[in-house]
Amino acid sequence: MTTWTSDELSRIAEADELEMAPLRPEGTLRRPVPIWVVPDGTDLYVRSYRGTDGTWWRTARASHEGHIRSGGVDKDVTFMEEADSEVNDRIDTAYRTKYGRFGGAYVDPMVAARSTTLKLVPR
């Protein structure tokens, strides 16, 4: 399995948003949408603000593949659903820390969307 370089990891982790373009069933990329991204150690995670109703999330979950762009990094990725409760606790904290300046109206839905946590793995 491929891992993020330290440069890629820090550039994406420091960026406010990530452009997410999941792969559709017929093999084309969805139009990119801006989402929040947080690091946990040497991994990167995303969640759907709209929970399981998020269109990009449903597409990503079905295909497990897509493309991201953030902090000058442009990369094909695999989406993995493997965040246990301990990892999700750390991701909750990471969202509150990184995005707390936007207030609870935005951060609280991200923390509540634990079931939509996806790990981004570079391809």
UniProtKB/TrEMBL annotation:
One Pfam family matching this protein: DUF2255
Protein name, entry field: DUF2255 domain-containing protein
Lineage per the UniProt record: Bacteria, Bacillati, Actinomycetota, Actinomycetes, Kitasatosporales
